[in-house]
Amino acid sequence: MGSRKGVIGLEEGWRVLKVDAIDKLEEILNQGITRKSKNLFKPKEYALIYTRCYDMCTQRTPYNWSEQLYTRHGLAFKTYLEKVVLPALKSKHKVYLLREMVQRWKNHQLMNKWMQKFFMYLDRYYVRHHSLPSLKEAGLNSFKTLIFEVVKKDVVAAILEVILHEREGEIVDRRRLRYCVEVFEQMGMDTLEVYTKDFETDLIQSSSKFYQGKSQIWVASDSTPEYMKKAEQALVEEAARVQHYLNPSSEEKLLRAVEVELLKNHEMTLLNKEGSGCRALLRDDKKEDLKRMYQLFSRPGVPKGLEPVAKIVEQHIRDMGLAIISQREATIKTESTKKENPQDPTFVQALLRLHTKYRQLVDDQFGGNALFKKAMKDAFEIFVNKDVGKFTNAEMLSTFCDRILKTGGEKMTDEVIEKHLEDVVQLFSYLTDKDFFADIYRNQLAKRLLNGRSKSDDAERTMIQKLKLRCGAQFTSSMEGMINDLNIAADHLRDFETHLKNIDAGEMPVPEFKVRVLTTGFWPTYQVTDVRLPKAMSQCIQAFEKWYTGKTSHRTIKFMYSLGNAVVRGQYNKKWYDMQVTTIQAIVLLCFNEFGDGDTTFPALCKQTNLNEEIMKRALHSLSCGRYRIVLKSNPRSRTIRNSDTFKANPKFSCPMRRLRIPMASLNVSHDKKRVTEDRSIAIEAAIVRIMKARKVLAHQQLVTEVLSQLAFFKPNPKVVKRRIEHLIDREYLERDKEQKNMYRYLA
User: Is residue 276 within 8 Å of residue 270, measured between CB atoms?
Assistant: First the structure.
């Protein structure tokens, strides 16, 4: 083709570009690059080539060769790839194919870069103006069409074979794999479609097949802990492969596939393996293996994988707890000759140790997972509510607290006491009959407070606060009321003592007379004794009543002599003793002053004190049959008090101690099951009325279900709920629907 003077012809200009740029570039690539990629062409050489292309693209039509240069740019790639690159790749196989692929890919990237630089002016104007693929895209498209599509299957097979060798422990060239994988990423043209479709799918299938075979070998030959270690290592290695030479998007899919083959498909076999499964790990306290098991079966590839583990944990804890119950049952049978003692802490301590052990297991090895917390809760609820022997578990727990909190027990620091209380409260949370525990605890708390036997007010308040956090303010209101009541009573006592200082001492024959004024509603119900007081006591009582009624007129006082105590000074053989006794015992002892040295009959004592026979027998038993026999009865060998017995002060009584404490059997029961049952009936009815008032109309089954869900302190039998509904219908709080008998209506 001819040209005008000064105008560059197409063939003339292309010849220069072909010889000085393209041919030279291909020669460098074929010989192996010895110079750095940035310096393949000297600046002067590059400037001449760029200028020639620029001149050919900026000439006026019809001598503007932009279109022709764009076409020949593509043909240059096509020719080189078909004649040089493709034959070189087809002649190689397996790892040698990958090596060649890496080299040819690097060469192509370099060639594409320089071709883009040579024909840069085309990209800037011609390509942009005609909305054509950029020179970079065109170069990649040529490689994809002419090379990649032809050899991709062989390359994938070679990559997977190398990965397989690496999984078997061989050392491979990870950088080469990274370059090979990069080809698949680049061929997607800014998407991962090609990578996913042509490589990743085969990778996942190959990985699944590999680990399917491995898992079958491992599960047959290894123990569960050994298998889990191998599975854990395999997952770590697969994650490392992604990091080193795979695309990050493959990690989740690859790990899920491995998890399915190694864990999901063999979970039950591993968990139930004889001698090394989950039960064996729990039995042998293999904490590290249990933690590994939790981590593996909580992975996404094992959906609901923790549920079977949690069931085994629940069953194991249940078995351990029932073993403690059985041990207690056996102890009661073997020691049947002895009286069963609720004060024995052995049973509760065993439960506490069990709870501490598995609470730590759930928190540390199972990550505090809610599934395992529920498993532990369900297990403990079964055996904590399984009563054995005369005393219920609620009573044993409450008595254990009493043992910790009262003086005279074990010496503990405040920190140890609080820890014990926290542990007990956690066991308490599993009790079904929380209201029964509360009744027992309230009675024991009252005894500690009234007898001054609490180790610490702070400890008492701490325990109440812990119960309050578990069950709400309603549960502990009376307990808090007792402690506050004592503080108010102390103020009354100080005021009364101040009053005594200002009156004639003759009005108070007893030097130290103290009264605690308590509120009836907070405290347990105590037995009222209509006793005839000795003159000295009666004068003190009258003096206090006179002062108190003058101070307040809206409260009625009832004296509970069964709760009081006194110090009685007695002289035996010219030696004085101070005897710490209950008020009832003091009244009985003072009677002997009036009867003199002679014998006194049982009926005479009852008549003198106005005490009933049962109370009198308890008082005399403590004085004549106990450790300190300060009273003699007619039949000293018998430990039973009879109505026919006679009594007198023991003239020969002697003791090395000057101060004696003479205990007496309590006149008040520690708890009242009947009253708790009545309180439950009230609570059930209140819940029924509350629900029906809000719902107006409700079916029987729905009403029962809602009532059971609202009652937090105990779980009543549905039959009991049904009886309470009948009572409310009889009292016209509810009525049955005339058309549907299983429907109830609220009567406002």
Answer: no
| Domain-wise residue ranges, the chain | 10-186, 193-303, 310-471, 489-551, 561-661, 673-746
* Region of residue 367 (phi > 0: left; psi between -120 and 50: alpha; otherwise: beta): left
CATH code of the domain made up of 193-303: 1.20.1310.10
Residue 427's SS3 state is: helix
Which residues have C-beta within 8 Å of that of residue 570, sequence separation ≥ 6? 576, 577, 579, 589, 630, 649
pLDDT in tens, 558-607: 888 888 888 888 888 778 888 888 888 888 888 888 777 778 888 888 88
* Beta carbons within 8 Å of 590's beta carbon, 6+ residues apart: 534, 536, 537, 568
pLDDT tens digits for range 36-60: 555 778 888 888 888 888 888 888 8
Domain 561-661 belongs in CATH node 2.160.10.10: no
Q: Give, as one character, the DSSP assignment of residue 575.
A: E
Q: What global pTM score does this model have? A: 0.78
Long-range contacts of 508-515 (CB under 8 A, 24+ apart): 508/539, 508/540, 508/543, 509/535, 509/536, 509/539, 509/540, 510/536, 510/537, 510/540, 513/540, 513/543, 513/544, 515/544
Instruction: Please give the CATH superfamily to which domain 310-471 belongs.
Output: Cullin Repeats (1.20.1310.10)
3-state secondary structure of 438: helix
H or E element in which residue 571 lies: strand 565-572
| Domain topology for 10-186 | 5 helical Cullin repeat like (1.20.1310)
Matching CATH topology for 193-303 and 561-661? no
Q: Which residue has the tokens 């009230």?
A: 682
Q: Reading across the β-sheet that carries 565-572, which strands appear in turn?
A: 565-572, 575-582, 659-661
Select from 723, 737, 733 the least CA-distant residue to 691: 733
Q: 714: left (phi > 0), else alpha (psi -120 to 50), else beta?
A: beta
Task: List helix spans (H) across 643-747.
Answer: 673-695, 700-710, 718-730
Residue type at 314 in one-letter notation: E
Question: How far apart, in whole angstroms, are the C-alpha atoms of residue 619 and residue 313?
Answer: 54
DSSP 3-state of 454: strand
Tell me if 7 sits within 8 A of 63, measured CB to CB: yes
User: Would you call the peptide bond into 62 cis, given omega within 30 degrees of 0 as the criterion?
Assistant: yes
DSSP state, residue 247: -
Q: Residue 713: which of 396, 470, 398, 521 has the closest Cα?
A: 470
- Rounded to the nearest 10°, the torsion over CA 43, 45, 47, 49 is -150
Number of H helices, E strands in the chain: 33, 9
Q: What is the CATH number of domain 673-746?
A: 1.10.10.10
